[in-house]
Design a protein that fits this description.
The strands form 2 sheets. Strands 14-13-12-11-7-10-9-8-15 form a 9-stranded mixed sheet. It is of the alpha/beta class. It has helices spanning about 15-25, 35-45, 55-60, 75-85, 100-115, 125-140, 170-190, 240, 300-310, 320-340; strands at about 5-10, 25-35, 50, 65-70, 90, 115-120, 145-150, 190-200, 210-220, 225-230, 255-260, 265-270, 270-275, 290, 345. Strand 5, helix 5 (about 100-115) and strand 6 form a beta-alpha-beta unit. The chain contains 10 helices and 15 strands. It folds into 2 domains: about 5-120, 3-Layer(aba) Sandwich (Rossmann fold); about 125-295 and about 330-345, Dihydrodipicolinate Reductase, domain 2 (2-Layer Sandwich). It is globular, with a radius of gyration of 21 Å. The longest helix is centred in the C-terminal third of the chain and has 20 residues, at about 320-340.
Length: about 350
């Protein structure tokens, strides 16, 4: 069987996809696109054919599939260019787009072209997320009453040397929080209906936020609190706790997510369930703890496996569709609006 002819556009986030593609036995990495010294050095190190202009790559190379890992503001144009090149399989990094309108446009044009669209919310490929999703669905936690989630981390100073990361649309809400809110949507299946947020840029004084506190109300009555900052050293983030992404210095002592139900509560990603025996219930009785061991995988590598399965027709339903990603984007846009107008926003 001929390999899937594949290209990667963007060599920051796309660098990981490139390395995974080079190891995949069903992928022929035809070319990459990226500009600047980092992209040049990366492509040279791996012996890759590199274009500075991704549009030229799409017009000159024969491809079956493409991964788009360009800055958020280029997502619409890049998808349009890929479809114009008759590419039928697109892996688009999150967020799907900067706005709800742009996201809907991407979904619509992919449907019109008969193209498969997979959005890179890669945590949906983690065995721990899949396990917790099933546990919640089983009713083991009872009715979900509340959730606490956090992304409290310090990014390297050099991270902010990339200009688009300090401009509007490049802050941690669209880059990082969008993962955490996709997690909540995916794990619980609950529909968020209202948000209230307070955002600050008091750490670096850039255009974009560097810390945000959020309250979310869900259909059915559950609530969630969420805090994010990319300038506060701490272990309270999935990326540091999960031991999945080797680019991070792991710190596994803390959970990044706590889910509170009427029958039990769960600490994640440590995978611990807390509950009482039904005949010995309440704070004066022993609180029981059950730990679950799950495989630790590389969710981004698993995401590429899933994408190739979609290309081959072995799977037909993307784990994160454009519609799924749009639902998550709506939450983030509601948070941004709430922070701007200093009022609760209905979603």
């Amino acid at each position: 069987m001929e390999p899937v002819k594949f290209a990667v556009l963007g060599l920051n986030q796309g660098a990981k996809i490139v390395r995974d593609a080079l190891k995949h036995e069903e992928v022929e990495l035809v070319a990459v696109a990226g500009f600047g010294q980092q992209a040049e050095s990366f492509a040279s190190e791996l012996g890759l054919k590199r274009y500075e202009d991704y549009r030229l790559l799409l017009r000159q190379e024969q491809l079956d599939a493409v991964a788009i890992a360009l800055p958020n503001g280029l997502h619409v144009e890049a998808v349009e260019e890929a479809l114009a090149a008759n590419i039928k399989h697109i892996l688009l990094e999150k967020p799907i787009a900067n706005t709800v309108e742009e996201a809907q446009h991407i979904i619509d044009i992919c449907k019109e072209a008969g193209a498969t669209l997979l959005i890179g919310h890669h945590r949906r490929n983690s065995p721990r997320y899949l396990f917790l999703r099933d546990l919640i669905a089983s009713g083991r936690l009872g009715k979900i009453i509340g959730l606490q989630s956090s992304f409290a981390i310090a990014k390297p100073y050099a991270y902010f040397d990339v200009e688009w990361r300090i401009k509007k649309g490049g802050g941690p809400l669209l880059i990082n929080a969008i993962h955490d809110f996709d997690d909540l949507n995916y794990l619980t299946g609950m529909k968020p209906v209202r948000v209230y947020a307070a955002a600050r840029n008091s750490i670096r004084n850039n255009e974009v936020e560097d810390s945000v506190s959020v309250i979310v109300e869900y259909e059915g009555g559950a609530t969630a609190t969420y805090f994010i900052s990319d300038g506060t050293p701490g272990p309270w983030s999935y990326d540091l706790a999960a031991e999945e992404n080797l680019n991070y210095g792991f710190c596994t002592e803390e959970n990044s997510l706590r889910i509170f139900g009427t029958e039990g509560s769960f600490g994640f990603p440590h995978m611990d369930l807390y509950y009482y025996d039904k005949d010995h219930y309440g704070w004066n009785e022993p609180l029981l703890k059950e730990h679950f061991d799950c495989e630790i995988n590389d969710p981004m590598a698993a995401e590429l496996d899933h994408f190739i399965d979609l290309c081959r027709g072995r799977e037909t339903v993307p784990r994160c569709s454009g519609e799924d990603a749009l639902d998550t984007l709506r939450v983030i846009k509601g948070i941004q609006k709430s922070a701007e107008i200093k009022q609760a926003v209905d979603l």
